[in-house]
Design goal:
Blueprint: H1 24-39, E1 52-54, E2 59-61, H2 64-72
Antiparallel strand pairs: 1-2
C-alpha cells in the first residue's frame, strides 16, 4: 500500500481555517510560517524516538515496547 503525503504545498487540498476573530497580524504570521514550511526553510520532524505513554499502566515505556506488542498479536 502506497502512502501519499499531502501538506500545505497542496493548497487545493490542505489549508488552515481560522476563526473570524483572529487578528490580521496573527493571520499574516501564520501565512509567513506556512510559506517557510512550503519552501523547506522550516522543517518538522516526522519521527520520534523518545518514550511512549502506555495507557494500560500510566507509565512511559521505551520504543521497543511497541515491537513486543506487535510480536504478541
Amino acid at each position: 500500500m502506497a502512502v501519499t503525503e499531502i501538506g500545505l504545498g497542496q493548497g487545493e487540498v490542505v489549508k488552515l481555517t481560522l476563526a473570524d476573530d483572529v487578528s490580521p497580524e496573527i493571520r499574516q504570521q501564520l501565512d509567513e510560517l506556512a510559506a517557510k514550511l512550503i519552501s523547506g526553510e522550516i522543517r518538522i520532524n516526522t519521527s520520534y524516538e523518545g518514550p511512549e505513554f502506555n495507557p494500560a499502566t500510566g507509565e512511559f515505556v521505551p520504543q521497543s515496547f511497541k515491537e513486543g506488542l506487535k510480536a504478541k498479536s
